[in-house]
């Protein structure tokens, strides 16, 4: 059985898409980021909680502050990418639930009154949204370089607040010279799928 999605789109989003390690200097516009968000915001989250928050690092000063918190091997990539996004989970997402989940506005207090419950839900669902964001970057014809090699506490203190937990830093742009590492193996269907 074939997929409904055109094979060229399948390649763009998955088979030929790679994590970029170098980028050209072609800028990534606010309009491109808006288009990415306007597509990926439709990806599902539990209770439509939508806890992902995106901090775009554009100014040279902010870039320098961010690079200082990156792992050594990630610093050159983050220094040279046309755009860098800090993806974080909003642990106070429940405040938006009456508007985002209008058929059961009581979910805010019935399920998410306790901070530890919110943090767990925010981490899982913002993680889902981060994956959608990466696919959206690819759909825009750009490459994404997601990274978790950084000082999370430093990034939180420098760019976020106590209500936002950093999930990843994503370099965004057109692939540059020798942008790809060799493709790593993937698990087979039989290794992953079990029927019971």
What would you say about this model in short?
The protein has 196 residues and is α+β, with helices and mostly antiparallel strands.
Walk me through this protein's architecture.
It is a single chain. A four-stranded antiparallel sheet has the order 1-2-4-3. With 196 residues, it is α+β, with helices and mostly antiparallel strands. It has helices spanning 7-15, 30-40, 60-67, 75-80, 97-100, 107-110, 115-139, 152-159, 189-192; strands at 52-57, 83-90, 143-147, 164-173.
Please state roughly what percent of the residues sit in beta strands, choosing from under 5%, 5-15%, 15-25%, 25-35%, 35-45% or over 45%: 5-15%
Structural class by helix and strand composition: alpha+beta
- Overall outline: globular
Total strands: the figure is 4
**pLDDT averaged over residues:** 96
User: What is the topology, as strand order, of the major beta sheet?
Assistant: 1-2-4-3
Major sheet: 4 strands, antiparallel
Low-confidence stretches: none
Taking the alpha carbons of the first and last residues, their distance comes to: 22 Å
Q: Nearest-angstrom radius of gyration?
A: 18 Å
The helical percent reads: 40-55%
Element-level helix/strand string: HHEHHEHHHEHEH
Number of helices: 9
Topology:
Elements: H1 7-15, H2 30-40, E1 52-57, H3 60-67, H4 75-80, E2 83-90, H5 97-100, H6 107-110, H7 115-139, E3 143-147, H8 152-159, E4 164-173, H9 189-192
Antiparallel strand pairs: 1-2, 2-4, 3-4
């Amino acid at each position: 059985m074939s997929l409904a999605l055109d094979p060229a789109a399948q390649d763009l989003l998955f088979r030929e898409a790679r994590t970029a390690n170098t980028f050209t200097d072609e800028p990534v516009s606010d309009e491109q980021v808006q288009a990415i968000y306007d597509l990926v915001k439709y990806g599902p989250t539990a209770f439509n909680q939508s806890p992902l928050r995106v901090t775009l690092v554009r100014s040279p000063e902010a870039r320098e502050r961010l690079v200082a918190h990156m792992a050594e091997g990630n610093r050159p990539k983050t220094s040279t990418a046309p755009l860098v996004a800090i993806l974080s989970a909003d642990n106070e997402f429940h405040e938006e639930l009456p508007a985002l989940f209008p058929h059961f506005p009581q979910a805010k207090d019935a399920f998410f009154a306790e901070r530890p419950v919110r943090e767990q839900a925010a981490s899982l669902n913002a993680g889902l949204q981060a994956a959608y964001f990466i696919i959206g970057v690819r759909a825009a014809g750009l490459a994404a370089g997601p990274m978790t090699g950084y000082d999370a506490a430093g990034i939180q203190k420098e760019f976020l607040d106590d209500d936002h937990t950093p999930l990843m830093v994503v370099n965004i742009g057109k692939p540059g010279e020798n942008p790809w590492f060799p493709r790593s193996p993937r698990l087979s269907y039989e290794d992953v799928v079990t029927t019971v």
